[in-house]
Amino acid sequence: HTDDAASKETQYLRRRCFNCHTTEPPSWRRSTLQPGKIVCNKCGLYERTHLRPRPLRFDELRA
């Protein structure tokens, strides 16, 4: 698995979200906070809206 945006997905190389490490999202986005990295749609939208990485646990949202 790779989180590099420049790498193409092949039969042997799969993409992985740089933030949450998911491998099967409906779509991918380029990270705005980490240039050159790829993130899933959820993490990408959160980054763009909140200007920070999406928390992986609900507890972190309340901090």
Provide the structure class.
Answer: alpha+beta
Instruction: Note the gap between the termini.
Output: 31 Å
Q: Please tell me the total number of domains.
A: 1
**Spatial strand sequence of the major β-sheet:** 1-2
The low-pLDDT segments are: none
Overall pLDDT, averaged?
89
CATH fold label: Erythroid Transcription Factor GATA-1, Chain A
CATH class: Alpha Beta
Radius of gyration: 12 Å
- The total of helices stands at 2
- The CATH H-level homologous superfamily: Erythroid Transcription Factor GATA-1, subunit A
Q: Into which percentage range does the β-strand content fall?
A: 5-15%
Number of strands: 2
Strand-and-helix sequence, N→C? EEHH
**Second-tier CATH architecture:** 2-Layer Sandwich
| Helical content (DSSP H or I, runs of 4+) | 10-25%
GO cellular component, one term: nucleus
Domain GATA-type: 15-56
GO molecular function: DNA-binding transcription factor activity, RNA polymerase II-specific; RNA polymerase II cis-regulatory region sequence-specific DNA binding; zinc ion binding
Subcellular location: Nucleus
